[in-house]
Amino acid sequence: MYTVTLIARPGSLDPALAESLRNAWGGGDLVWLSPDEAAEFDIASVPDTAESSWSALQDQGVDLAIQPSAGRRKKMLLADMDSTMIQQECIDELAEVAGVGNQVKDITARAMNGELDFEGALIERVGLLKELPASVINEVLADRISLMPGGATLLATMKAHGAYAALVSGGFTAFTAQVAAALGFDENRANILLSENAVLTGDVARPILGREAKVQALEEITKQLGIPEDAVMAVGDGANDLGMLQRAGAGVALHAKPSVQAQVQLRINHGDLTALLFLQGYSRDAFIEPEVPPLV
Fold first, then answer.
1. Closest CA to 182 of 289, 296, 94
2. Residue pLDDT, tens place only, 182-214
3. pLDDT score at 117
4. CA atoms within 13 A on the CB side of 46
5. Which end of the chain lies in a sparser environment, N or C, as judged by fewer CB atoms within 10 Å?
6. CA nearest 122: which of 137, 107, 144?
7. Distance (Å, rounded) from C-alpha 284 to C-alpha 296?
8. How far apart are CA 206 and CA 229, in angstroms?
9. How many angstroms separate the Cα of 7 from the Cα of each of 86, 108, 149, 190, 281?
10. Positions marked catalytic
11. Whole-structure pTM over 0.70, yes or no?
């Protein structure tokens, strides 16, 4: 059996639309996970019209996901940070302070869309931050970084049901450590920005954590926990996330670049991070809403 999940912004999912799709696909009972926001039903097989239906629903502000019904509730969350657990790209924000914002943002966008080699693009961008005071990092965290809506609820709810959460980023430990602590991640992995005498050197420690390192984290942590990779939900938005998104039991492209969406089955463009709970069959009344401390 497969489960079809429909997710929209709160109050935006038309019950008639959900009922119509259920009837067209011969689905089971329509279950509302959140009134006028998220609903699901089971089907025996994936219909040939799945992709065209996904496209049509996108135009109506509705995300459509189809996945095997068994094992939907995951035991581990593996998450990217930039533009996933936070709403910004940290290196772009540092670049703005350094006065090279437009140049760095262009490189970041191309790298995340898979047009540039990630490692080379990272080295080039970090080089433009040379001689920036290291103290700027905390200023950026305090003034320019905001958490992605729904992230704290996602972690608190999954962890309350025994899941393990890992933040694995191609960004920097100076940011992941604070984001992980605020949201309740069990561990975080990222690159290390190098500095001397409280000034950034314009370089990053080797080896550089990129696409393969995220897959490695998936392999290492699942082995450590003694769980199969099918028990993992991964979430990210860029080309360097594709490895873990395609390897995990449920890989979710969140507000992702077009080239990433083209290669991932589960795509969320309209909901926030709580959509990942709906995908696992959690209803909104089961969500845990924690208090979130400031990043610095």
1. 296
2. 999 999 999 999 999 999 999 999 999 988 999
3. 87
4. 13
5. N
6. 107
7. 30
8. 27
9. 21, 29, 15, 31, 12
10. 80, 82
11. yes
In order, the DSSP letters of 10-39 are TT---HHHHHHHHHHTT----EEEETTTEE
What the block records as the tokens of 269 is: 């463009």
Task: Please report the domains of the chain, with CATH numbers, ordered by start residue.
Answer: 1-70 (3.30.70), 72-296 (3.40.50.1000)
Region 249-256 average pLDDT: 98
Cα separation values, 143 from 113, 171, 259, 260, Å: 27, 18, 31, 30
Sequence-ordered alpha helix ranges (H) in the chain: 15-24, 50-58, 90-98, 101-112, 118-127, 136-143, 151-160, 173-183, 211-225, 242-247, 258-261, 275-279
Per-residue confidence (pLDDT) for residue 68, from 0 to 100: 97
Q: 192: closest CA among 180, 177, 179?
A: 177
Predicted pLDDT of residue 248: 98
